[in-house]
Amino acid sequence: MTTVDQAIADQGLRLPEVITGYVGGQSVPVKPHANQHAVYFPGTGEQIASLQEDDAAAVVTAVACARTSFESGEWSNAATAARQSVFRRAANLIRAHANELALLECLCAGLPSSHLASRQVPRAADNLDFFADYIGVMAGETFEQLPGYQTLVTRQPAGVAALFAPWNAPLALASMQIASSLAFGNTCVIKPSEYTPLSVLRIASLLEEAGLPAGTINVINGSGGVTGAALAASPDIDRIAFTGGGATARQVMAAACEHLTPVHFELGGKSANIVFDDANFERAVDGSLVNIFSNSGQICIAGSRILVHRGIAERFIDAFVARTRSLTIGNPLDPTTEVGPMAFKAHQQRVLDHIARATNEGATLLCGGEAPMNMGSGYFIAPTVFRVESNDLALCQEEVFGPVVSIQIFDNDEEALSIANDSRYGLVGYCWTNSLARTQAFQRQVDAGTLWINTPLARDLRAPFGGFKESGIGRDGPRQAADFFTEEKATISALGNPPIRKLGRLSD
C-alpha cells in the first residue's frame, strides 16, 4: 500500500509544516501566534500539515493587494491576446503538473488520485483554455435605431472578486471560478476550504509562472467563521462567487447585503435519477452508479434519489445492490480504488448520522450503512443503499453528500415527475428512457437547471450550469460569467448635429 510519505517522495514534493496564504505573489510568513488548523489525510486520518488562519486584518491586506493590482491596469487593461496567452500557458502547466496536483488534492480531499489525474486536473486546464477561447470571440454591440445617434455597448471588468472554493472538488470548481473572473480582467481573492488548501495554492503559483501579474490572484486560508466572514463582509469587494452549502450561503448573502455586493451561488442538490421501464437497462445501472458514487457521493450533482418504474424495480434493485457491494473501497492513493473516504472526520460522522436517521424513520437498508472496520482510521463509509416508500423522509429531502442513495418505486410518468419535483432543491436531474415524447415532456417539466438524458455527468462548457430553487443564484457559463464579472456600459454618441430641444431661450 502506498503511504503518504512514499507518494510525496515519488512526486519530489515537500509539504510545508505550516501552510500559509499567498498574497502579492509571495507566501504569507508564518506568524507565531496565529490560529492554526490541522490538515489531515482522509485515507488514514494522519495529520499532514497545519494551516495558518488568516484573520480579518490579513483579509484586508489581501483585498487591498487585489485592489492595487486591479487599479494598476496591468491585468485589467491588458490586451485580450495577452490574457489569452497567460491562460493557455497556465493550462499547459496544469497538464504538465497533473500528477502533482492530483496528489495534493488527494492528500486533502481523499479523492482517488487516479481519478483526479485523469479527469479533474484536465478539467481545470480545460476551464482556462475555454475562457481563453471565449474572450477571443466576444464582441460589443452597436445600435443605430435612433436617427442621428449611435449606441455602443461595451464591457469592463467589475473589479475585485471574492471567490469561495468548496472542499469536495477544489481543482475543478476553483479553476472555474478563477477562469471566469480573471478572463475579463478582474483580480481576485480566493478562499479554499480549510480542509483542502493545497491544490488551490499550487494553481495560483502556476498562473503566476504562466505570466499572471503578481497580486492578480491572492489566496487566503482559514475557517468560514473567521476568514470567510471577513472576506464576505469586505466593503472593497465588487463580486462574490460562492460554491458550497445553503447554510453558509445565507451567511455570505447577509454579509454581502451590507454593501449590496452582487453574489453568484452554486449550492446543493437532491437530484432525482429516474429510470423508466423502457430504458437501456445496463446503461441505466451503470449511469446510476456513477451518478451517486463518484467522489464518494460528495458532489452537488449526485443522483441521490433513484426513482425506478415498478415494471423493472426488483430487477434493477437486485442489480444495483450487487454492483454496489462489489465497489472497491480503499486508500485514495491506490489506483484501483473506486470509492475513497469522506473528506474530513466531522463529515463522516454527519453522513453516519443521516444513515441512522433514515433507519429510524423506516427506510429499509439494502447494503452498506456503516464505517468499514477494515479501513483503519480513515474516514470511510461503505456505499449505502436504502429502499424507501415515501419521499417525505429526511433521507430524500436533505443533502447527505456521501455514498448514500435511496430507491423509490413509481407507477407512471405523473408520479415520477411529482416525486422528482418534490424537493426544495433543483440543481440537476437524470432520466433514463428510450421514449422521445417522454424525454421532451420531462425536459420541460423537471425543476432542474440541468437534465441529463441517458447519460451521467456530461458537461459542455458553453451551456449554462446552475440550479432552480435553493440550488443557487445565477449560472456558470461563458455568457453568464461575462454578465456577472463585468459591468456593461452604453455610450450614446450624436452623429453630426441632431437637433436639441431648446429650454430657457432668451429673446434677441
Descriptive tags:
508 residues; alpha/beta; Aldehyde Dehydrogenase, Chain A, domain 1; Aldehyde Dehydrogenase, Chain A, domain 2; seven-stranded mixed sheet; six-stranded mixed sheet; 23 strands
Query: How confident is the prediction overall: mean pLDDT?
Result: 96
Share in helix: 25-40%
Query: How much β-strand is present in the residues?
Result: 15-25%
Question: Strand order within the widest sheet?
Answer: 15-16-17-14-13-19-20
> In DSSP terms, counting alpha (H) and pi (I) runs of 4 or more, how many helices?
16
In angstroms, what is the radius of gyration? 25 Å
Task: Estimate nothing, just give the exact number of structural domains.
Answer: 2
Assign the structural class, choosing from mainly alpha, mainly beta, alpha/beta, alpha+beta, or little secondary structure.
alpha/beta
Strand segment count: 23
State the major sheet.
7 strands, mixed
Q: Give me the CATH fold name of the largest domain.
A: Aldehyde Dehydrogenase, Chain A, domain 1
Unreliable spans = none
CATH class of the largest domain: Alpha Beta
Task: Note the gap between the termini.
Answer: 99 Å
Q: Architecture of the largest domain, CATH level 2? A: 3-Layer(aba) Sandwich
Shape: globular
CATH superfamily of the largest domain: Aldehyde Dehydrogenase, Chain A, domain 1
